[in-house]
Amino acid sequence: MKSVTLAFLVLTSLVVNSAQAELPVKKTDLLIVGGTESGWAAAIQAARQGVKSITLVLDGDWLGGQYTEQALACVDENKGPGKVGWGVDWHPMKRSFHRSGLFKELMDRIEAFNTEKYGSAMPGRPFHGPSTFRPAEAEAIFRELLQPYRDNGQVTLITRHYPVKADVNQSGSHPRLTGLWFAPAGSEQPDLHIQARLTIDASDWGDVIQVSGTDFEMGADPRSRYQEPSAPVDLSDYPANEMNPITWAMIIEESNQDTPIPQPDHYDDRNFVRTSKLSLAEMKQLLWDRPVKLGSIPHWPDQGKASPRQLSIFTVRRIVDGETSKDRRTSILLNYMLGQDYPLERLPQQVVTALEATEPGASEKNIVLMTRPQRKIIFEDAKRHSLSLLYHLQNYVHTRAPDKTNSFRHFHLSDEFGTTDHLPPKPYIRESLRLKAMYMMREQDGRNQDGPHKKFARERFSQVMYPDGLFAWQFHYDFHRTGRAYLKSEGNTGPWIDYEKPGRNTSLVSDRSLFPLRSLVPAEMDGLLGAQKNVGYSSIVSAAIRLHDQCVAIGQAAGATAAISLQHDIAPREIPYDRAKLEQVRTGLCDGSKAGVALLIWPYRDLAPSHPAFIAINRLAARGALPMEVRKVDFQPDAPASPKWRQEVQRLAYQSVNVANLTFTFNENMSRGEFCQQLWDGLKDLPLRPYTRVKPDDADADGILDRDDPTLFTPGEPVQWKKITSVTDADQNGIVNLIKSPQERRINFAGKNIPPLSGFEADQGAVFNPQRGFGWQRDLSQNVRQRKQVPEVYRDTFVFTRDHDLWECTVPNGRWQVTVCVGDAGHDQIGQWVSVEGKQIIQDFSTVGGSFLKKHTQVEVRDGRLTVEIGKPKAGTNTCLNWLAFEPIPPAGTSR
Questions:
Q1: Model-wide pTM > 0.90
Q2: Where is this region: Disordered (predicted)?
């Protein structure tokens, strides 16, 4: 994207003439651009960590981003297959983590306000049970929480300005952003020049990233870019302007009488075919030019009695329920239902015409690259489309319902935004540009490993747990319908409907994941951090990290990183390689000595910030000082701390500190949480063992450059569980030794279609044959598999049993060194069992998909056959045997 951003720089620089170059300069330590929830959180976090001069510049008047000026007034937060409570813990619909950090502070304040005014912390009746609020009331709370730092002079707030030009110093090893020029809203002429030691881009569309010439990406990623399994191989059906759609939300309030809106321009009932007054036969006759799936089409005639499906429109985003709240008036958020979303590709003809009049080719530009006047053209049509939906609801959906609460004709647009059209100032923005960061988060790092659909997902930590993780997140990869289809007979002059493109769906869910510091830091530009939705992840991952709580946490992480960078006068890019500085960032986010609620760093399900051991457990977990298993997502802080567990925690914890001969005395009856508290109190101020950086661009010298290595200091495959578990890396990678002795035999268990492997004999699951000299007690030829997930065929293939099976090989009597490897390159396998010559060497062991277990043993053969048994009778789980190696052990006193 460098060529695009440089062209943008040249264009914007033309607006600055010599007179404007004399503008007085305002200096600040930290400049934050964007009044979004992320920009707001960054300002508060940096202020709490002692940054003396913070300037927050926003292009409008509202703080709070999607909560307020985008009117997404129904909180969506981290969720996945495991849940612990939503809003209040008794609620039947729950979330993945306990609320923490600034998000909890904000929601506690909002819910307290709701309780006072409406009589309930959650005054609405939304479909999945989250907290709701009025946007204007939430905006006042955002300001209240920021106000102390404005009052003490740390934070200066500047409204209605946006950046048009950047000061970039090119003299160092990396270009450095040193300042920005701002123009007032509605103008292109700058009237404000701010120089800053560090800048955070928390804007809607990555304004700072663009004007500074920082690299970024946008639109769909081809599979070749990050090797994501769900990414399209061919982008021919994914034009440059295709991305998660925007939606112009509407807040409607209950009226005392009918308050219908006038018919919008270009209204066509066929735009809302899923709820149209058309008959089913008429709907089916509509031929779209793309593969639209209408699903179950409800026929909603104009009748007096509303159906349950019709009534759901009133409750799916009801933010105040007039039937139960003290306010006695219902307010509803209309956000995405019934085709309200506005795809950004294949625009309607009237929009194309208007855009092309501003610049040839403008209608095919990604919205990120558009000028503000060009975006306004898109925005006006998105508004018109939303109003068309409201008109449709008022005129064609249960218009004659006798109960006024079941008729949209008894609702009017809220006037709380102060806009002439009574709509929020901005659309809901699901996807922005993506900062080209030190590390780009990929789908395969965090996608659930259990199956192709979220209904199969089970609780587990993610495949990769980044060593520089700053907060926890979990969600599904949630693309709304990104495609736009037109009637074949009318083209883009007629009605359209949104549709779902392959790979752009919500069927995949993430595991319990972390957000790495590196994804805030540009790959090349210094003096700049990303925030809000302008951070380092792929388009697919961006669809899962865009929620209310996540954007607040991103802002907090950016603010904490900025504070440590400024305190030590170092570039943020140095922090992931400096363990002491990284721990200081985490201290800013999760420490009891700082104001506010500590942030959840490690994604345990059962840890609430109110627990006395919350900070200690989070901090020890982030250091890799707690023994873990991939599916044990509950820490159980109040369970007894067994002697064996305490010993393992101490061993792991001491690996991170640069002190010898540590001694601690612990009470034998301590809980796990109490043990962690005492251990953390003793460790937290000790000098840390520094990371060892072997090469400048490949820290662990594993052949994976840092820009593509999610685990910077873990050589080999980037699966974090190799490092966290007590099993060694060599035992879990399943790789055979490069050196093979002449006496060693290696058996690969694979199907008949697998070509012979050098150094291996092939076993295809056949019954023992004396001429061949090895085989199974029964035929297992139907129990061989290849996953095509890893390059080494001997790891990619295996024979399995769900019962108990026996393999034998004719060998001379004597002592033998035997190595077995179990695991599955594609899936988790639980409860595997292997014994050799009656000696149990693997017992009830589970492997994560893509990881393996090698086990070595020495046995005595007395009957002329080496015997290997796999599986446990009636176990009901798979044991997957990849390969087997064995060689004789020379008698004592002899040499090989």
A1: no
A2: 219-238
